[in-house]
Amino acid sequence: MPVFTRLRQLPGKKHDLPVEDAVTESAPENPPTDTPAPTDDEPAAAGDGRTGDADGNDSPEGEAEAEQPPTTTRTWRTTYLPWTITALAAALIHICLQMPNTLGNLKATEFIRLPAEAIIGAAVLLTLPRRPRLIVAATAGAALGALTALNILDIGYNEFLGRHFNIVLDWELLDDAQSYLKDSLGGTTTTLLTIGVILLVVLLIAAVALATVRVADVLARHKADASRGALIAGTVWITCTAFGLQVAGVPIAADHTAGVLKVHARRAMDTLRDEAQFARDAKADTFGNTPPDQLVPDLRGKDVIFTFIESYGRSALEDPEIAPGVTDTLDTSAEALADAGFHAKSGWLTSATYGGSSWLGHSTTLSGLWIDNQQRYRTVMASDHLSLTKAFQKTGEWDTVGVMPGVQKAWPEQRYYGLDKVYNAFQLGYKGPKFSWSTMPDQYALEAFQRQVHGKKRDKPLMSEIILTSSHQPWAPIPEMVDWDDLGDGSVFRPIQQSGTKPADIISDSTRSKQEYGKSISYSVTSLTQWLERYGTDDTVLVFLGDHQPMSRVSGTKASRDVPISIVAKDPEMLDKIADWNWTDGLQPGPQTPVWKMSSFRDRFLTAYGSTPSPSK
After folding, report:
1. Which range marks the domain in which residue 422 is found?
2. How many angstroms separate the CA atoms of 156 and 162, rounded?
């Protein structure tokens, strides 16, 4: 029996206990239990806090062993797992801070740099009390996650459109991207992809916010060590900056995130300023006050056709992997047209867009204004600035028609372009299959134009704007030429579409994309030139051009923005009018042929065919 128990059994007497006994009394080692003490013949009961030696005596070592974690799992969960999670959180933050916004910079060296934002962020968090620290950490983490998503979006825009995402203007283009995916990959796949992307963005923002909060909490618990670490890291960063230290040509000291924010802020401010300035510029027009009878007098009596071939860029004529098939097609087409009495001159225009947003190329060509973003496009469409096609309507001497197989909804731009009638995807009588994004083959669209518009008798000549879409990405499946007399309602294309290449088979394959792109351009050019050979007259003047280069996966990251343009006519006087342009004879512009900005074409064309300038201000 313990000493303190025996003492308590002595009534009425005060006992002076040693310090050790007093402590033992207040916190007894072996409080009494109902479990009987083990005998000399049986071991100590499991969980009683004691171990027995061979003689049945209590062992101090046994008491120490009872206090240790019972399993290694508990050690992992309480020691290693928290630090593993913290390390992963820190790694996620580091990756987001260094995430590039171009595919070319997505390499390992970008992620071994020392980010200034992490050092400054750690220093700020260490100075804050708990609640403000959590709020600042969560907010900063969520913002970093959103910026990372924006960098990924930037990569996509650079790959497809050759430019960065504009946070002021480009949100509405995401709807067009979704429509493109729906036409290319199907509705179900696109819906699943859209949901997946939204979930990934939300998860990314939440994960970075939680990671930042966790790292901030760890820094606060180890404040002294964290402060020393931040000081050392700051010193290293300053030293690396001062001496320009690099790894594989990449500076060690980085302020990438701050730089990205600065670029986006400056781009947003420039966009807002540009909007106001461009609205003023659009009001000034070299031919704004030109009387109707002084517009294009040298084209009176001619059927003038402006045709845009989707994605028909300089790469189609010069890239060694694409050009051979396209140039052979152009040579063959030029010979066939010459046999039919047609001749051509060709040049280069530098497009206002790249890889997509075709309407920017169309509007730049026809307005004479440089329209390289959506806000400029909206401004021009709402203005009275004279478009090249509207100049024909303004004279009252032409019927004006648009053939737009890619238009599948209301198209208010009809007013700006001065088109009396527009035939959209549902008004050309097509009953065949879609070819990915393209609603119908170019050959059918041109035959429908002939049947419904060009081939009919009329009191006035015709001015037409035609958009050919078969060469639109993803360039699979591609139509094939059929006998013009067999086109019917387009059902003849059904087996061709079913046996064609699937978009998913080439959409991520650069080599196959180039091959199929070249085939699609050859198909569109063949469709157009055969139509002209078949239905063109002595009074036909055809202007055809590309709207932009194909995306960088096909044209290359260093491709120009140039597109070919040709004017074709039987009447030699029509080409004599542009002799001083120094364009190349035939359907292929030469390497030394002059290159103009696309926005200069309207004024040059109007002037060449006799229009009198009369500026508006």
Report:
1. 284-608
2. 9
